[in-house]
Amino acid sequence: MESGKQLPVAILGGGPVGLEAAVACALAGLDFVLFERGTIADNIQKWGHVQLFSPFSMNFSQDACRLLSESGQTVPSEGSLLTGREFVEQALAPLAETLKRFGRIEADSEVMYVSRDGLLKSDLIGNSQRQAVPFRLFVKAESGESTVLADAVIDCTGSFGNHNWIGNGGIPCVGEQNFPERIRYDIPDIQGADRAEYQDRKTLVIGGGYTAATNVVNLSELAKTNPQTQIVWVTRRRCSVPVPRIANDSLVGRDSLAVNANKLADADNGPVTWMPGYVVEEIQNGVNLPLSVVLSNAENHERTVIEVDAILGNVGYQPDRSLYKELQVHECYASLGPMKLAAALMGETSADCLAQASHGIDVLRSPEPNFFVCGSKSYGRSSRFLMRIGIEQVQLVTAELSRTLANREPVQT
Ligand SMILES: Cc1cc2nc3c(=O)[nH]c(=O)nc-3n(C[C@H](O)[C@H](O)[C@H](O)COP(=O)(O)OP(=O)(O)OC[C@H]3O[C@@H](n4cnc5c(N)ncnc54)[C@H](O)[C@@H]3O)c2cc1C
Question: How far is the CA of 15 from the centre of ligand 1 (A)?
Fold first, then answer.
């Protein structure tokens, strides 16, 4: 490294929020390097066939729109409801290309660990002197492993893909890890590429959120052309409907998903059998169908055995915090998100993510100076996050970094 060089802001994750962090850094004149472990917006591409609930204007900042149009790209209209794939192709991937004029965008580069150069987690506890010491990142790319130093880190690595387990109590049930080819935890392209796995088959869907609802609705659509398709829908909660509606939900697509899924669960002669108030105890080889699943009634603990072809476990995701385990990050023991933000979120009464604000910069600060967790990862296990919040978060963080990094001493090497 050159003598007297100031270090970049390291942005971890090239999803919508990481890219917005890069936009904010570019406009603030902060040098940045963004690491994405796969291709740009890799997580969104995994559910690219699903339509977003929120209109484009909520998912992409005005600044990002301006950068795109200045580089000659057509910007999607404000109200458009894009699929995940369209969002990547029409906005996020071109934005990443545009951002290369301002900083480094490193795809296929996974940040494995972050620490402070020469300091351990237990050194200078809660002491702002840690700020004077650069961050040290261990990065793994196809070209090999490397160490990168940075003055600040914005962790936007999301939580999608790091799924919760379907077993009773949130740990794997007996057998859960033995059938990886038959148990998925995401949103397969049921009417497209993954159709053969589900048509005229019996699928167990587990979970009471919008991801489970999406799978139930898509499987039911498949049942219209392939009438042997059956769905057993298990929810842990015993409510009047599987997906409680949000009062006066202004995201029309989200509300109609809840309405449609609830109708399917209620129908007597449809393809869906709803089993409220059950948890999964064990999964074994079946006799007539490939999987035999032991369910227990959460109230009276009575057991029921069903046989199915496949399982879709949609019981949420949680952040992978191993990346920053050598840093002094104060986490909530319930949500696994950064503590101050978690406390602010717990104080909220509305289940509607639209009702939320970003809660300001203070809740994003942790005992580790100049280290910030933003985006969906900052919400820990909560699924209420919206991209709109992440955009506000990274704008606040970048404004803070512009102030704190302005007076930094160049690193002497
Ligand atoms: C089906 C579905 C529909 C949704 N619809 C909406 C909607 O309509 N509106 C809305 O606001 N939100 C919606 N969400 C939530 C939405 O996914 C998030 O708001 C958004 O993707 C979060 O962006 P993010 O950048 O925080 O995380 P992600 O999109 O998860 O991006 C994280 C990125 O970090 C990368 N990464 C992970 N680990 C590392 C590492 N160690 N090193 C380097 N890179 C790494 C990943 O590959 C990924 O590209 C939806 C979610 C799902 C699953």
Answer: 6
Angle at 262 between CA 168 and CA 220, to 5 degrees: 90
Report in angstroms the alpha-carbon separations of 43 from 5, 162, 196, 290. Answer: 34, 11, 23, 29
Any ligand 1 atom below 6 A from CB of 40: no
Mutate to test the pocket of ligand 1, among 20, 317, 376 (most ligand atoms within 8 A of CB): 376
Of all protein residues, whose CA lies closest to atom 37 belonging to ligand 1?
Answer: 157
pLDDT band at 346 (very low <50, low <70, confident <90, very high): confident
pLDDT at residue 1, as a whole number: 39
User: Residue 276 pairs with which residues in a beta bridge?
Assistant: 235
Domains along the chain with CATH numbers = 9-160+317-406 (3.50.50.60), 168-313 (3.50.50.60)
Q: What is the mean pLDDT of the chain?
A: 94
ipTM of the complex: 0.99
Q: Of 13, 11, 15, 36, which is closest to residue 108 (Cα–Cα)?
A: 36
Per residue in 121-178, pLDDT tens?
999 998 889 999 999 999 999 999 999 999 999 999 999 989 999 999 999 999 999 9
Report the residue among 56, 157, 218 best suited for mutation to probe ligand 1: largest number of ligand atoms under 8 A from its CB. 157
Strands 291-297 and 303-308: antiparallel
